[in-house]
């Protein structure tokens, strides 16, 4: 099912007109109203009238809708080409087939998504069965087919009756049409209100079984009728069905009433139709009574159709159904089925999209595009690797096009119309590359990046010499430019759209102050969009820093749904910290042996631990690269690009690669040690299983880090036993570790200590932390822990803690 889209509009409450009128009247206004009513009586009278009017309209809508449902059921039962017998019979006589126009008119008026909104609580509760069919199944054996029982209260969800999958109910068939956007309704509380049908307590099984006079069941045996009783029991609803009795005849069925003879079949069918309608429609059948005048001949009502025309119509409908079915995306697909050319994005962008082979929207793109193009503020949550970057780049491009065409094009300085903020340099470059690809056919529109690790002056020159209507920046470098009065501030005064990617991270304490300073330099009249795969509650609160009060919250994951991908297998190994440097190479080798085109990312807690892990794996002759913040930008960019393109490569990295990085076809993500929080776990894991593909995630933690699993308890994380270490691998690790320079190990020890000291749970008990750090120290081949600078020890609260040596 289309994933849930939750939209909230804060501050969108508007008081009723009446309350506003009366609040205005509170001090003065007339005291009496026509008819001697006081103002409250007057108000209530009008409210009641409005309610009645609304209900009347709703009833009319329902009748139309139900008529449509009836028609569908009739058409389905009549036109089932599978039933040879039916077809044969149908040749003999032209039954009351619904004309195409009738369906079409109703469809045009009422077959639209959201029709379910027309049903209110007065229509009874919506009932879901275990199997989601809306019908609870019972006693298969007895009926010989899927018998359906409504359980105790005998109510049935008519929505499900007309809804898609074909349920076998004896020989009668019930179609589930939910896939076409049909709304459904519970009829549990419907009252019968039809004058043309006899009222009664019981509904004869035969009636359901013989809904079509041409059905083989129509002249079925008693056994068949009996078997269908199970079915009928379901829809027995006191007062809903007439107590008509049917006498079976070889060729026709008769009613107990005077209707007999040649017209028997047709009349019975008409009555059955009405009865069926009654079953389906409750009090709304009043409409049917009015419409089907008994004095009017059936021929007049439903002119007989040539069976070939009917067949043709039905086959056309079927081919349309097939097209819909073919275009439908599977439940777990990241695509929505909607195409970009159905949206209002510019033809040149469409051209660029199709040049990249991109045709269909992903669900997040479908859910956000129109909202974003309408200029609304939005906070958007969607799973990792589902195309969020494109979801905000497309509106950014449209904003630029609009601004350039709007005649505000005369600016003293070259304006920047869209600013995209993201946390890391690699991510900024990646988004810029995607933006450039989308702008392939747009002349004169440029995307540029402002990221750390490059020369400030060069940035300035580039910004001045090349077009830049879309700027993608990391907060630190952008602030540098703003504070150094490089002329950027004035260019930003024309800003129309401000986007924050990985919003939860950028609005978190570490970045928030920078972001606040940046916002201060932006015009207040702008559109803002926040995107992330994780949006914790605190972030929703602080999102008001950036967004307007009436922003939309678009959550394509859905409340209570798992934030990770089903196709990504997640496991966890709990093993003593000392064994981690042995276990990682073992796990890598195992995966490499099983996955010829492997591509693995190993996340370590800090840059220096990353460096140590990388050095070890390199010593072991594995095909490995490293990226972390301590590496020069040129190296980071080169390795990042290389890893994007290649296969059979391991990337050891810190959290600089955790967010947004789109490395295609990563087969395994290993996280060594606990991540900083649940969100970071999800983002790291999200480097695999992108674009709806499969993948594997492994979390390797020490026993004392187990508490963290509580934060992941809603994720499908499976504990797996510690693997038996291959003695050869163990020896190889020991030998390789021995070769590594002590300075790398010491730096890793200090970084490790710093990281776990900053984690609230482990940083609380400094003595235990020192003990654990010492164990880590031994596991990497250091005999004793290297000393800390006094100032650092004081800062970390580790001064005077036993096991923490301080430099003299
Ligand atoms: N409609 C689409 N059709 C095909 N591929 C798409 C579509 N939209 C995006 N992609 C591709 O999907 C990949 C992942 O997209 P992207 O990096 O934007 O995901 P994301 O949701 O931002 O992930 P993260 O949460 O990790 O930042 C990219 O290679 C992108 O080009």
From TrEMBL:
EC number: 3.6.4.13
Species of provenance: Arabidopsis lyrata subsp. lyrata (Lyre-leaved rock-cress)
Assigned protein family: Belongs to the DEAD box helicase family.
Protein name in UniProt: ATP-dependent RNA helicase
Lineage, highest ranks first: Eukaryota, Viridiplantae, Streptophyta, Embryophyta, Tracheophyta
Residue ranges of coiled coil: 43-70
Keyword ATP-binding attached: yes
Pfam hit, one: DEAD
Motif (Q motif): 338-366
Catalytic reaction list: ATP + H2O = ADP + phosphate + H(+)
Domain DEAD-box RNA helicase Q span(s) in chain numbering: 338-366
PANTHER family per the UniProt record, alphabetical: RNA HELICASE
Record's keyword terms, sorted: ATP-binding, Coiled coil, Helicase, Hydrolase, Nucleotide-binding, RNA-binding
Domain Helicase ATP-binding: residue ranges: 369-553
Span list, region Disordered: 76-100, 116-155
Positions with biased composition (Low complexity): 142-155
Enzyme kind, highest EC tier: hydrolase
Domain Helicase C-terminal as annotated: residue spans: 587-728
């Amino acid at each position: 099912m289309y994933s849930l889209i939750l939209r909230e509009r804060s501050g969108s409450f508007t008081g009723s007109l009446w309350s506003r009128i009366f609040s205005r009247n509170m001090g003065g206004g007339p005291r009496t109203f026509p008819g001697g009513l006081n103002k409250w009586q007057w108000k209530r009278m009008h409210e009641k009238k409005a309610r009645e009017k609304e209900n009347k309209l709703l009833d009319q809508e329902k009748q139309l809708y139900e008529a449509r449902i009836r028609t569908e059921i009739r058409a389905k039962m009549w036109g089932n080409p599978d039933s040879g017998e039916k077809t044969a019979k149908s040749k003999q006589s032209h039954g009351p087939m619904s004309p195409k126009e009738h369906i079409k008119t109703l469809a045009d008026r009422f077959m639209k998504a959201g029709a379910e909104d027309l049903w209110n609580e007065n229509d009874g509760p919506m009932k879901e069965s275990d199997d989601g069919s809306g019908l609870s199944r019972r006693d298969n054996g007895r009926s010989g087919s899927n018998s359906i029982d409504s359980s105790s209260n005998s109510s049935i969800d008519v929505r499900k009756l007309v809804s898609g999958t074909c349920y076998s109910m004896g020989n009668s068939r019930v179609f589930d049409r939910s896939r076409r956007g049909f709304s459904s309704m519970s009829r549990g509380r419907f009252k019968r209100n039809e004058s043309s049908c006899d009222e009664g307590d019981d509904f004869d099984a035969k009636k359901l079984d013989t809904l079509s006079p041409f059905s083989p069941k129509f002249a079925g045996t008693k056994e068949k009728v009996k078997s269908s009783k199970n079915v009928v029991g379901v829809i027995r609803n006191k007062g809903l069905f007439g107590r008509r009795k049917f006498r079976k005849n070889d060729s026709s069925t008769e009613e107990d009433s005077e209707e007999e003879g040649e017209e028997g079949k047709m009349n019975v069918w008409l009555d059955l139709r009405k009865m069926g309608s009654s079953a389906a429609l409750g009090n709304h059948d009043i409409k049917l009574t009015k419409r089907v005048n008994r004095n009017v001949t059936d021929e007049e009502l439903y002119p007989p159709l040539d069976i070939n025309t009917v067949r043709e119509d039905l086959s056309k409908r079927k081919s349309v159904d097939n097209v819909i079915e073919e275009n439908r995306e599977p439940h777990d697909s990241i695509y929505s089925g909607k195409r970009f050319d159905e949206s209002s994005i510019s033809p040149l962008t469409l051209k660029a999209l199709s040049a990249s082979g991109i045709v269909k929207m992903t669900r997040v793109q479908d859910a956000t595009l129109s909202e974003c193009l309408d200029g609304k503020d939005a906070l958007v949550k969607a799973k990792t690797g589902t195309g969020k970057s494109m979801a905000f780049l497309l509106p950014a491009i449209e904003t630029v096009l609009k601004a350039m065409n709007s005649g505000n094009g005369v600016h003293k300085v070259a304006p920047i119309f869209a600013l995209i903020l993201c946390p890391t340099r690699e991510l900024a470059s990646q988004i810029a590359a995607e933006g450039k690809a989308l702008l392939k056919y747009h002349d004169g529109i440029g995307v540029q990046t402002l990221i750390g690790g490059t020369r400030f002056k060069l940035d300035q020159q580039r910004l001045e010499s090349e077009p830049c209507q879309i700027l993608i920046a990391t907060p630190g470098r952008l602030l540098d430019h703003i504070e150094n009065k490089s002329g950027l501030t004035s260019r930003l005064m024309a800003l129309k759209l401000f986007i924050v990617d990985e919003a939860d991270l950028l609005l978190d304490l570490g970045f928030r102050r920078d972001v606040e300073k940046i916002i201060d330099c932006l015009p207040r009249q702008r559109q803002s969009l926040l995107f992330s795969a994780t949006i914790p509650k605190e972030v929703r609160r602080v999102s008001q820093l950036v967004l307007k009060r009436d922003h939309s919250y678009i959550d394509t994951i859905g409340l209570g749904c798992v934030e990770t991908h089903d196709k990504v297998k997640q496991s966890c190994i709990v093993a003593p910290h000392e064994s981690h440097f042995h276990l990682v190479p073992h796990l890598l080798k195992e995966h490499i042996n099983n996955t010829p085109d492997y591509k693995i990312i190993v996340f370590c807690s800090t840059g220096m631990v990353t460096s140590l892990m990388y050095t070890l794996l390199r010593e072991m002759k594995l095909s490995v690269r490293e990226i972390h913040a301590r590496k020069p930008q040129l190296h980071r960019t080169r390795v990042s690009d290389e890893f994007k393109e290649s296969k059979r490569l391991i990337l050891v990295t810190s959290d600089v690669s955790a967010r947004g990085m789109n490395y295609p076809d990563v087969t395994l993500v290993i996280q060594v040690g606990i991540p900083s929080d649940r969100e970071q776990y999800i983002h790291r894991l999200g480097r695999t299983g992108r674009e709806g593909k499969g993948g594997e995630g492994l979390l390797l933690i020490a026993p004392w880090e187990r508490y963290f699993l509580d934060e992941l308890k809603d994720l499908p994380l499976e504990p797996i036993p510690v693997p038996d270490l291959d003695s050869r691998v163990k020896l190889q690790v020991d030998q390789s570790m021995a070769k590594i320079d002590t300075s790398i190990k010491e730096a890793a020890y200090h970084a490790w200590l710093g990281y776990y000291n900053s984690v609230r749970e482990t940083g609380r008990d400094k003595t235990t932390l020192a003990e654990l750090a010492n164990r880590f120290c031994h596991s990497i081949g250091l005999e004793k822990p290297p000393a800390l600078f006094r100032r650092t020890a004081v800062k970390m609260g580790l001064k005077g803690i036993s096991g923490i040596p301080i430099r003299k």
